[in-house]
Each structure stands twice: as C-alpha cells, then as structure tokens.
Automatic annotation (TrEMBL):
Native source organism of the sequence: Sutcliffiella cohnii
Keyword Zinc: no
Annotated positions of the N6-(pyridoxal phosphate)lysine modification: 39
Domain annotation Alanine racemase C-terminal: ranges: 246-371
Enzyme nomenclature, EC number: 5.1.1.1
GO cellular component: cytosol
Family designation: Belongs to the alanine racemase family.
BP GO annotations: D-alanine biosynthetic process; peptidoglycan biosynthetic process
InterPro entries cross-referenced by the UniProt entry: Ala_racemase, Ala_racemase/Decarboxylase_C, Ala_racemase_C, Ala_racemase_N, Ala_racemase_pyridoxalP-BS, PLP-binding_barrel
Pfam families: Ala_racemase_C (PF00842), Ala_racemase_N (PF01168)
UniProt protein name: Alanine racemase
Length: 386
C-alpha cells in the first residue's frame, strides 16, 4: 500500500459509488446496461478504484475520453470492455486492438485509413457516434453513415458493436431541444436498423438516465451521478433517488497562532485583525487545485464553518478559528463534520461553475484515500506511485 507524507488528502468513499450504481441499476428498466464513465481519472476520484467498484456494483462497460486513459486502466489490471468516447488517431489503432479497447468512429475517411493500418487478426471494436445536435463529434449525414455501414460490411477489420449520441440539454428543465435531438436520433437509428443489427445503442448521460429512463435504448453512460453529484442545479428537485457524494477533501491544522490587533495575514496583507483572534494555517493551496479565487470560501473545523482569510497561497492558506485549537485538528474543505456539510455543489457555486469541475480540479499533488465498507482499502499517492 502506498503512503504519503503531508496533511492534505482526498477521501473517496467507494461505498457511495457502489450504492449510486446499484440505485441506478434498479431504477432503469431491465435490459439496460451501465457504462461507467471514468474519464479524467474518474472525475478526479481515481480511475481503477472507481472502475472496479462500478463493475462490482453491476456496470458492464467502462468509458474514457482517450486511449491513454484506457491503457491506464489496463495497466492496473482492469479487463472489462472500455469505450474511448473521444477522437483517436489512426496511427494509434493497433494498440487499441491489442488491448481490446473499443473506439468511437465519426468520419468515413478515418475508417478508410484505419483499414490500411490495422495489422491484427481480430477485428477492432467500434461504436459509431451520431451528432444529433451536440455539434461536437458525430455523423450528421445519413449518406455518410450508409457508406460507413457498407464499408464495415465489406471488410473483416471491424466489429460494429454500438451506435450512440450525446444530448446537449438533458439536464435543463426545458425539454424542447432534447426532444428535437431525440427525434433525429430515432430517425437515424431506424435507418441503421434497416441495414444492420447493432448490439448496443446508447444516448443517455446521467441526466438522461435519471429523467428519461424509458428513452435510453439499451445502455447508459453514467458519469456525474455515479459520483453522487447532480447533473445540474435545475435537477436537484427532480432526482428519482438519493445520490451519495463520494468525494471529500481533508486537511489538518499545521500551525495555530494568536494575531494581535493590526497584524495581517498572507500576500498583499489584505486581511488585518480588528481584534485579537486565532489563525490556523492549512497546508493546501492553489497548486493542489484549491484556487486562489476561493478566498471567500469557508471550511469546517470542529464541526463549525470558519472563513478562509487573506490570499490563498500555492501550498497553504489561513483560516480564522473560533478559539485556540490543537495542531493536527481536522479541517474539511469538502465533506461533512457533525451537522455541517460543504458539497462540491457549494464550491461550484462560489466559482460560478458546475460541480463536475470541482473534483476534477483537485490536482495529482493531493493523495487519494479509498474507503470501502467504511475502512481504508487503498491509498494512492500520484507523486510517488507508478
Ligand atoms: C462525459 C460523458 C458522459 C458522462 O456524462 P455525465 O453527465 O457525467 O453523466 C457521457 N457521454 C459522453 C460522450 C461523455 O463525454
């Protein structure tokens, strides 16, 4: 087991991940499978640990953004099928083939080039991506899709396993655009089904799965809700079951001192004590992803909300304590203490962004502790591991 030598860490409660996947599984109609989306190091949580937990809980497929993320999972012993959601370079397809990684195809010219490059005996597994209105990746022309289906049919280089699309507004209360995309999708799927049979058809991210469980075809790509976060603020009151937030960010007081009236704290001396007060130093800063913009935020100490004072430094920040507290006292930046809780949603609101960004922005400098069945299962220190 890895270890670390600093007083700041992320705790990932894998029981929450497990429960969220199970809740989703029992919520969805029978026959709908779960693709656990573990891109970006599982939204900053830890790729292999989340992947294993999701598979234990009933997910049958994994998804990442690019090939290197899939290879990271393979190197950590994950054997389950993995879909790369983003664009892959043709020159990298043989490594995908060798490692049994499924690629997304959204251009005919890519496929033509790929036929020339492939050198394995087995076919490369592919999913076709349809652009029904997201405007990111995907086929928009049915003529091109038709040509692609013919091409796939004529060679033995590919196994066409799936077809999918992505919605742009599934998390918004107004469903007009969603309905338009859905109509385009059903037309395109109808066309494809006339030409060939497809094992997997998927269109649902978390928001779609939670709101339109009967419209997801036979698989969902479950991301944010698996981590226990709501896809959007608009959806907070629409959740069909409770989500359990897996990510918390912890630290400890490493220094405590009494400030006299007129003494200041941190760069720029922007904060000055107006009365005698206790100040604690916390060893986490913007290089850990706790952005300088968070100077107005609060943290939890001794079950109470206390303010960050003065500018946040690269590796440290200061907080105003209600009274003297011992060195080593737990400081919670995201998570719960007694009756108080700071969610990634709260931090997102302060930064005027979405909750997705919050666990993603906590950098590799912060070690991850994984809990399963309430006890520590694994420690990962990205600075020392690999
Ligand atoms: C990231 C991603 C998802 C997961 O979306 P969530 O909103 O986190 O559930 C699904 N599909 C694609 C194509 C993605 O890029």
């Amino acid at each position: 087991m890895s270890s670390f030598h600093r007083d700041s860490w992320v705790e990932v409660d894998l029981d929450c991940i497990y429960n969220n996947v199970q809740s989703m599984k029992s919520f969805l109609p029978d026959g709908v499978s779960i693709i656990a989306v573990v891109k970006a190091n599982a939204y900053g949580h830890g790729d292999a640990q989340v992947a294993k937990t999701a598979l234990d809980a009933g997910a049958t497929y994994l998804a990442v953004a690019f090939i290197d993320e899939a290879l990271s999972l393979r190197q950590q012993g994950i054997k389950a099928p993995i879909l790369v959601l983003g664009a892959s370079r043709v020159k990298d397809i043989n490594i995908a083939l060798q490692e049994n990684i499924t690629l997304t195809v959204f251009r005919k010219d890519w496929l033509v080039e790929a036929i020339q490059q492939l050198n394995g005996k087995n076919p490369l597994k592919i999913h076709l991506k349809l652009d029904t209105g997201m405007g990111r990746l995907g086929f928009t022309s049915m003529r091109e899709v038709d040509e692609v289906l013919q091409l796939v049919d004529e060679t033995s280089s590919f196994e066409l396993e799936g077809v999918y699309t992505h919605f742009a507004t599934a998390d918004e209360l107004d469903t007009t655009y969603f309905e338009q995309q859905y109509t385009t999708l059903t037309d395109m799927i109808g066309f494809i089904k006339e030409k060939t049979s497809i094992r997997m058809i998927h269109c649902g991210n978390s928001a779609t799965a939670l709101r339109f469980p009967d419209k997801v075809f036979n698989a969902v790509r479950l991301g944010i809700a698996m981590y226990g976060l709501t896809p959007s603020n608009e959806m907070i009151h629409l959740l069909p079951f409770e989500l359990q937030e897996a990510f918390s960010l912890q630290s400890k007081l490493v220094h405590v001192k009494k400030l006299a009236v007129g003494q200041s704290v941190s760069y720029g001396a922007t904060y000055t004590a107006e009365e005698e007060e206790w100040i604690g130093t916390v060893p986490i800063g913007y290089a850990d992803g706790w952005l300088r913009k968070l100077h107005g935020a609060h943290v939890l100490v001794d079950g109470k909300r206390v303010p960050i004072v003065g500018r946040i430094c690269m590796d440290q920040l200061m907080i105003r304590l209600p009274h003297e507290l011992p060195i080593g006292t737990r400081v919670t930046l995201i998570g719960a203490q007694k009756d108080e809780k700071i969610s990634s949603n709260d931090i997102a609101r302060l930064l005027d962004t979405i909750n997705y960004e919050i666990p993603c922005m906590i950098s590799y400098r912060v070690p991850r502790i994984f809990r399963r069945n309430k006890s520590i299962m694994e420690v990962r220190n990205y600075l020392l591991d690999n």
